Structure to design on (232 residues):
């Protein structure tokens, strides 16, 4: 099973600042990686797939990069609605598809 | 508009059974692979099971293999998860999700649409 590790666990950022979230895979998953956003009481929302392709309707301030074992989600200028928990998920080696433990982006 | 609506959750005793349903609308259900993902406060998001569009291929996490069965009825646009021999650690919010299809017609195994979830509690 591919283990996904996200860092940091919590990121404190001021509105308008850039946020950089990391995700590391225990073995190469090439670019078969997705990022999700989850707000309290809501289902996860797909932001990025293929490591860098924004899903339908996702604002351009969200960008994904990386390949192999190291991935990054960048939010260029945080807006109030972006404070949430973010998860990465690999889908290169499955079953099972595996998720990271999440990074909570909170208001500084 | 794509919609996924789960139902069937509830309180069940250890060793009991439950069948979850996920009613889909707003897209051609029969061509999309579907998955079940569960979430607990302690373990985060956990992929549970997946099924191909035709229903001919099914996949399971080791933690549920032999106890859970995924299926679908494409004539009813509905996905199912039959859960038997339930344990306390199966307690979670269960989501159904649709696998994605990109603009070039390639599938990707990430959920592009999710339901709102149905809560399963296993307790005596």
């Amino acid at each position: 099973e591919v283990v996904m590790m996200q860092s940091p666990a919590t990121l404190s950022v001021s509105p308008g600042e850039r946020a950089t979230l990391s995700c590391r895979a225990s073995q190469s998953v090439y670019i078969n990686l997705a990022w999700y956003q989850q707000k309290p009481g809501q289902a996860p929302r797909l932001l990025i797939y293929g490591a860098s392709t924004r899903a339908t309707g996702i604002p351009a301030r969200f960008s994904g990069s990386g390949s192999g074992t190291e991935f990054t989600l960048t939010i260029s200028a945080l807006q109030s609605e972006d404070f949430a928990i973010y998860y990465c998920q690999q889908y290169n080696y499955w079953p099972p598809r595996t998720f990271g433990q999440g990074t909570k982006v909170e208001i500084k | 508009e794509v919609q996924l609506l789960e139902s069937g959750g509830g309180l069940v005793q250890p060793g009991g059974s439950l069948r979850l349903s996920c009613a889909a609308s707003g897209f051609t259900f029969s061509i999309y692979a579907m998955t079940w993902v569960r979430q607990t406060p302690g373990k985060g998001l956990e992929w549970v099971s997946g099924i191909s569009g035709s229903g001919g291929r099914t996949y399971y996490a080791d933690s549920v293999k032999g106890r859970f069965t995924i299926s679908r009825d494409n004539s009813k646009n509905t996905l199912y998860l039959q859960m038997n021999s339930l344990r306390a650690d199966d307690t979670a919010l269960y989501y159904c999700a649709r696998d994605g299809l990109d603009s070039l017609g390639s599938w990707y195994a990430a959920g592009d649409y999710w339901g709102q979830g149905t809560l399963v509690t296993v307790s005596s």
Q: What stands out?
A: Chain B is about 0% helix and 55% strand.
